[in-house]
Amino acid sequence: MDPRIEAKLMINRREFFGRQALGMGTAALAGLLTRDGLAAGQQNKGLPGLPHFAPKAKNIIYLFQNGAPSHVELFDFKPKLVGMHGKPVPDSYFEGKRFSTMTGNPKGKVMLAPVEPFKQHGKSGAWVSSFMPHVASLADDLCFIKSMHTEAVNHAPAISFFLSGSQLPGRPSLGAWLSYGLGSEADNLPAFAVMTSISKGTTCGQIFYDFYWGSGFLPSQHQGVKFRSGADPVLYLSNPEGMSAPVRRGMLDDIAKLNEIKLKEFADPEIATRISQYEMAYRMQTSVPELTDFSKETEKTLALYGPGVKEPGTFAHHCLLARRLVERGTRCVQLMHAGWDQHRSITTELYTQCRDTDQPTAGLIRDLKQRGMLNDTLVIWGGEFGRTPFIQGDLGNRPQWGRDHHPYAFTLFMAGGGVKPGITYGGSDDLAMNVADKPVHVHDLQATLLHQMGIDHTKLTFKFQGRHFRLTDVFGKVVKDILA
Fold it and tell me: Angle at the Cα of 150 (from 176 to 422), degrees rounded to 5?
């Protein structure tokens, strides 16, 4: 058979519709690429018309604590819980509520008092336990929300819910929405960067799924770029052995020409994304080594973050890297530290978790503040839910004390970015079991974060499969009382 005829017979469905729609698709593509900032060599500038109003923050650093820190151990002091240590949970506190399968029905479980003492700190009088002395010293710079509540009772759905607004994987994450809507201030670093860490020796680590920083149905240009420990912080940036920079440049130029041919032929925005990302990767070959070189940081600055700051892969190292990223124009940095899932290790591994995260967290906030960057950088610290005020395990076996997942009331804190410092908003009941005052849902928090970045959360949408989606789904109210 004539090869030309055979080629026409072998055309697949995608190619057929791509070629038939060429005229219309190409005409629509220019607007699409302008909207999404995907044209070759073009910096990601975000959407026209954004921000919707003057932002209070330019950047977000989200210190996400995978596994769920215990609010009753760290921030939510309840004298009644101390007094009820070892006594059964009153039925009225858990009736009609769903817990993880590890707890099942809480009936008969006994209350567990905090294992470390609490004190009030600063002029604000915020309660913080001795687990977090460095964070406690910043009480007057922090905004504690003690009335957080969520819907998921297991880790992956709950983390996905916090970061993407949906318990099911596949929706764009917060950083992807910010990259899509606001773009990047840097042309040689990603708009959205991610780092993951875990305390050494922990037995309760969490899996870091890629969808925690995914772009979902948004163009893949907006997914988080993961920075790793080791010689190559970002994979595939280094030239292959034996390839010089001019050869690499020539190869990328040729690949771009081939991609542009396909782009004209099929009008697929993901082809434009590839062109853009190849260019970004080439520029990052220079910017990333400079970014990750701490040699010009003063010893005084390094000391803020604690002893682990010079060890790549630690939470302390990532906190300093986060400051350097936002300093250079990265829009959103998501640090994820696993190991907080203390079902049997409240009296052991919680000490390690706090030691590894307490000083770096406080050091990051102090560093941003002394550089004048805290005003327009919003820092968030918290996990996907809290821990039960009742015990998981045997009260007589202290080394194995633990707490189960608890979505009904928990605490997170924020600093900077136009949020009121030195306040505590909302509260749980007298056993830290349920929200009793000024509830804040996950979608409310998301709406508030977007608001501080100058975005009306109801207007930042993307049409997918016939529906206009947004980070907050169809919910969410800005928590205006915490805003300066």
Answer: 80
* Three-state secondary structure call for residue 65: strand
Structure-token pair, residue 324: 């350097």
Query: Residue ranges per domain, the chain?
Result: 13-40+239-291, 43-233+306-482
Q: Does domain 43-233+306-482 have CATH number 3.40.720?
A: yes
Q: What is the pLDDT of residues 132-156, one digit of tens each?
A: 999 999 999 999 999 999 999 999 9
> Using CA atoms, how far apart are residues 121 and 455, in angstroms rounded to an integer?
34
The Cα 218–Cα 460 span in angstroms is 12
Q: Is pLDDT larger for residue 8 or for residue 318?
A: 318
* 394 SS3 class: coil
What pTM, to 2 d.p., does this model score? 0.87
pLDDT tens column, 186-195: 889 999 999 9
DSSP 276-322: HHHHHHHHHHHHHHHHT--TTS-HHHHHHH-GGGGSTTSHHHHHHHH
Question: Burial, 33: exposed, middle or buried (Cβ in 10 Å; 0-12, 13-18, 19+)?
Answer: buried
Q: Is 46 left (phi over 0), alpha (psi -120 to 50) or beta?
A: left
The answer to whether the CB of 293 falls within 8 A of the CB of 233 is: no
| β partners of residue 419 | 483
Residue 382 token pair: 């918290």
